[in-house]
Structures are given as structure tokens and as C-alpha cells.
Amino acid sequence: METLATLERTAIEACTAGGSTLRDAYRAGDTEADRLAHDVKSSADTGSEAQLLEVIRSQYPDHRIDAEESGVHEGDGPYEWIVDPLDGTNNFEAGLPSFATAVTVLERAGAANPSDSIPVLGVVYVPMLDDLYVGRRDGGVRYNGQPVRTDDGPGGEPATATVVSVIGHDVKRQPESAAVSESINRAIEERCKRRLESWSPTVHWGLLARGTLDGVVCYRPDREEQRLGELFAAESGLQRARGEDWFVGARSASLLESLRELTVSRV
Ligand SMILES: O=P(O)(O)OC[C@H]1O[C@](O)(COP(=O)(O)O)[C@@H](O)[C@@H]1O
Ligand SMILES: [Mg+2]
After folding, report:
1. How do residues 159-174 score in pLDDT, each as one tens digit?
2. How many angstroms does the Cα of residue 30 sit away from the middle of ligand 1?
3. Range of the domain at 77
4. If you count Cβ atoms within 10 Å of the first and of the last residue's Cβ in the chain, which end, N or C, has fewer?
5. pTM, entire model
């Protein structure tokens, strides 16, 4: 019988196993070939995913798994796993240490459609920092074992805010959505102190939960990151607003309203 505690142990074991593969590859500089051939999967990416899948499948062989590299592994168990073996591929390949392994566990609860499943657990492991984030439904977010809240940090007003922007993989490939995204970005830069482009959203969801980043604007984000992000946001007390293809979060009401308004007027 699965409990959140046993699911969490497995998720942490899987993320740290995958993360150690990434750390070894990063330290060995094992990224060059992949940068030259965009349609070839990075060996670190697939190596990390193999580690994650081995841990999850050995303990929950009947759970459905949606893995970024190998796709869907069907199962009829009560939970579904979303596996991102390397969130931050661009950073990894550029030699920037902001990348993570991440899993989200969703309760299927009879949901016919996977998108109706409810996220109950999210784990993010940042191997180069040995940072671990765990978010549980109705259980808060922990950073290296300690409970954190988004209002732990000071300030959070637009004029002093650092805001991260998150987009899904398709946004830059479609001229119309690319233009919307650029317009949102310019507006964030006009109103806030700093804008950070996220090439590793799960790392930033952890920082938002700790209150070291002040706000987030997601435009047409990818499911694998967004389900985890919204769980972390809810469980850490981030103020939130959403529409059909956008989500904004902030540590203060004034920043939330500013981000909401600039997003709504452009989508
Ligand atoms: O700027 P690009 O090349 O479109 O990459 C942005 C993509 O990178 C990410 O930040 C991380 O993606 P990966 O998990 O594939 O590393 C995505 O969320 C985002 O869509
Ligand atoms: Mg990702």
C-alpha cells in the first residue's frame, strides 16, 4: 500500500540517483557532442532517466510513468509519475550549474484523462548544489529537510522584485506565441527590477517556495514542470492567478496584480 511517505522515499531515491549521473557527466565535461547535434538525445539525459526509471519501476511496477525522453510507460496503478531527468538542458550544455532532476507524482483517482490527475508530491534535486526540495499536497514544501514558505524572504514589491519567466518548448517555435512572450518579457522588465529567463523551471520553483525569487510568469508552460510548480506554489503560500494558457505567482499582492495585469493584457 502506497503512502505519501513511501512515495516520497522512492521519489528522492530516484532523483538523487539520476542527479548523480548528471553531476558526473557535468564534471567530466560530457556535453560537447550533444550541443552540436540537436536531435540526438544527450547521453547524460538518457542516463539520468534510466536511473530514475529503474528505481521507480522496481518499487511501483504498476504505476504509469510519463518520462521526458522515453515517453509513456503504461500502468494501471493509482498513481502516475512525471519524470524530468534533466530540467535545464540548455544550462547543462552551456556549463551553467542550474539544472535538476524532478519528479511529480499524481493521484489518478479514477481520472480518465491524465491531465485531470491531482499532483500530491513533487521532488526536485539540484545535483551541483546537493539541494533537495520536496513538496507534498497539504504538507508544505521542505528545502533540505526544513519547511519553507514563500514569504520567508524580505520585500517582494515590483520595484525591487526579481521575476522569473517560464515558457513551454513550443512557444519560440510559433511566431504568434513568440511575439506574445517577448511582449510579456518587455513589460516585466519595465515594471520590475530584474527578469530572469528560466531554462530550469523546477530549480526556480524551489527558489520561489523559499522566497528568494519574488514572482513568476508562466506562458504556455510545459505540463511536466507546471504540475510540480503549481503544487510548490500552493504549498509554499505563493499568491496565484491563472488563465487558460498562463499562470502568475508572487510573494506580495501588489506584485501579483502587476504581473497579472501585464500578462492578461497581452495573451
Ligand atoms: O529557450 P529554449 O531553447 O526554447 O528552451 C526553453 C525550454 O527550456 C526549459 O526551460 C527546460 O527544458 P528541459 O527540461 O528540456 O531542459 C523549458 O521549460 C523551456 O521550454
Ligand atoms: Mg524540463
Report:
1. 999 999 999 999 999 9
2. 19
3. 4-138
4. N
5. 0.94
